[in-house]
Request: fold
Amino acid sequence: MARVKRAANAHKKRKVTLERASGYRGQRSRLYRKAKEQVTHSLGYAYRDRRAKKGDFRRLWIQRINAGARANGMTYNRFIQGLKAAGVEVDRKILADLAVTDAAAFTALVERAKANVTANVPAAGTSDAA
Reply:
């Protein structure tokens, strides 16, 4: 059986890893073992954070909607409740964009939500537990 020489493949593999680590600081971009370790961690972080990014954006949208709703005298919770009662199906991404860029349209939505939330909320002091 012929002898297998590994030098070419080993150099190629190491070169790919060092190229991936080219922007890292210190030994992590120059020494193969440190670079391999960091590239492995970085790929894991990238995978994790691609999923975490979706939640981060949702939190940002909710903060923006809450700020816009409070500027119009309503809380986020009541605003969303009123929109659902009114049958308005606009997702949080679009609502956040309206709150930032188009205050008049957002105010109209808040007024619509206010009209529907007051119609469906029981009077203060009454309870359905009895």
